[in-house]
Specification:
Helices cover about 45% and strands about 15% of the residues. The chain is an alpha/beta fold. The chain has one domain: TIM Barrel (Alpha-Beta Barrel), CATH 3.20.20. A 4-stranded mixed sheet has the order 8-1-9-10, covered by helices on one side. A 3-stranded parallel sheet has the order 2-3-4, with helices on one face. Helix 7 packs across helix 10.
C-alpha cells in the first residue's frame, strides 16, 4: 500500500532515495494532499539522516533593543523610540541578564534586536566583550544577517569589517532571522526598511567565508504562495552547497497578533496546523543531504503541535528560549525548561539530548 501511494508521486520516490529535489519536485510536494504520506516520507528521511535523537539547547534570548528603523508589516516587536515601552539595554543591564542566564543553566546567549538608528558599532562590540570577559564559557549567537547589513550601512563600514570586529569581540555564531522569504514578490509585502533577500544571502555568505557559522530561517503562513516557499528552500540549499556554513534550518510560523498585516486585514488568521506540518516535512525533503538539522520552533507551535512536527521531519526543538520577547509581543508564551523539553521529546517517542550551539551533544536524558 505504501509503495503504491509513493509510486504515484515522482517527487516522493526521489525523496525516499534522498535525491536532490528540483523546483518542480518541490511544487509537486506543496500541492500533494496526502499529509500523512508526506509526513511519513519526511520522517523516514529524518531517521536515515540523523537518527532518533531530538536535540535542544539551553538558550537565553537577549533582545537588546526594540527600537527599529524598519517598520516591517509582519512584526509586533518594533518601536520607533517615542513609545513608553521602547527600550535599549545598557551594558550593565546586559551583564545582569547574562548573569541570570548563567544561573538558569544557559550554554548560549541568543542576541537579536531592532535596527537602532543611533547605537554605534562600539555598543555591539562592548556587548560581546562584557559577556566573554565575565562568562568565557558561554557561546554568543548574535545578530542576524539583516542586523549586520543594517550596521554596515549605518556605520559606512563593509559587511566584512563589521563581522571581523564583532568576531574579534567574541561573536561565535549567528542566528538565522531576517531571512523571512527571499522572493521579491512576497518580501515587499512583509518587509519594510530591511535588506533584500539577495543582500541577506550575500551577508550570510560573507560570514560563512570568515568561519562564522549560522542558522537559517523562513517565515511562512502569511501572504506567500507555494512557489515562494520552494524558491526560499532552494536558495538556502544552494548556499549550503557552497559554504557548508548553516547549522540548522528553522521554519518560523507567522504570528498574527499586533502586526500591521493583522491591522490592515491583509492576513485574517494564522495558518493551519496542517500547513505547519507540511512546511516541516517539505523543508526536510528539499534540504535532505545538505542541511540535515530541521528545527521545530515550539514557541510558535505550542508544545503539542511541536511533538507532532517531530514525526514529520523535525529533529531539534531549538532551545529553552529563556526571556524570548519577539514572539511574546505577538501573544505567544515562550519560556520552558530543559526538563520540560526532554519530557516533550520522550512523550513523542524519541530520545532527548541537550546540545550546544554547534549540535555537539552535552547531555542525554
Amino acid at each position: 500500500m505504501l509503495d503504491r501511494l509513493i509510486g504515484q508521486s515522482r517527487a516522493l520516490e526521489r525523496a525516499i532515495a534522498i535525491e536532490e529535489l528540483s523546483f518542480e519536485d518541490g511544487m509537486e510536494l506543496m500541492n500533494y494532499d496526502n499529509l500523512h504520506m508526506l509526513g511519513a516520507v519526511a520522517d523516514l528521511s529524518r531517521k536515515k539522516l540523523v537518527g532518533d535523537t531530538v536535540t535542544f539547547a539551553a538558550s537565553y534570548y537577549l533582545n537588546y533593543t526594540n527600537i527599529c528603523a524598519a517598520s516591517c508589516q509582519m512584526c509586533a516587536f518594533y518601536r520607533k523610540g517615542n513609545e513608553d515601552d521602547a527600550y535599549t539595554l545598557t551594558p550593565k543591564q546586559i551583564e545582569q541578564r547574562v548573569a541570570i542566564a548563567k544561573q538558569m543553566g544557559a550554554t548560549e546567549i541568543h542576541i537579536v534586536g531592532g535596527f537602532h538608528p543611533k547605537a554605534p558599532l562600539d555598543y555591539y562590540e562592548y556587548m560581546m566583550r562584557i559577556i566573554k570577559d565575565n562568562h568565557p564559557e558561554l557561546k554568543i549567537k548574535a545578530f542576524t544577517a539583516a542586523e549586520i547589513f543594517y550596521l554596515s550601512k549605518l556605520t559606512k563600514n563593509s559587511v566584512k569589517e563589521i563581522l571581523s570586529r564583532l568576531k574579534d569581540a567574541g561573536l561565535d555564531s549567528m542566528p538565522g532571522g531576517g531571512a523571512e522569504l527571499f522572493h521579491t514578490d512576497v518580501r515587499q509585502k512583509i518587509v519594510r526598511g530591511k535588506c533584500s533577500g539577495q543582500e541577506w544571502l550575500e551577508t550570510i555568505e560573507q560570514a560563512h567565508t570568515m568561519g562564522i557559522k549560522s542558522n537559517c530561517t523562513m517565515l511562512y503562513g502569511h501572504v506567500e504562495k507555494p512557489e515562494h516557499i520552494i524558491d526560499h528552500l532552494i536558495k538556502i540549499r544552494d548556499l549550503q552547497k557552497k559554504t557548508k556554513g548553516f547549522i540548522t534550518f528553522i521554519p518560523l510560523k507567522f504570528s498574527l497578533d499586533n502586526t500591521e498585516l493583522e491591522k490592515e486585514k491583509l492576513v485574517t488568521h494564522e495558518c493551519s496546523s496542517v500547513y505547519d506540518l507540511k512546511i516541516i516535512a517539505i523543508s526536510r525533503l528539499m534540504l535532505a543531504g545538505f542541511l540535515n538539522n530541521i528545527s521545530v520552533y515550539w514557541v510558535a507551535y505550542g508544545q503539542k503541535l511541536a511533538q507532532v512536527a517531530l514525526t514529520n521531519g523535525g529533529n531539534d526543538l531549538v532551545g529553552t528560549a529563556f526571556s524570548e520577547e519577539i514572539y511574546r509581543a505577538a501573544g505567544k508564551p515562550t519560556n520552558s525548561s530543559v526538563m520540560e523539553l526532554a519530557t516533550m521529546v520522550k512523550e513523542a517517542g524519541r530520545l532527548p539530548a541537550q546540545r550546544d550551539t554547534f549540535f555537539n551533544i552535552l547531555k542525554e536524558f
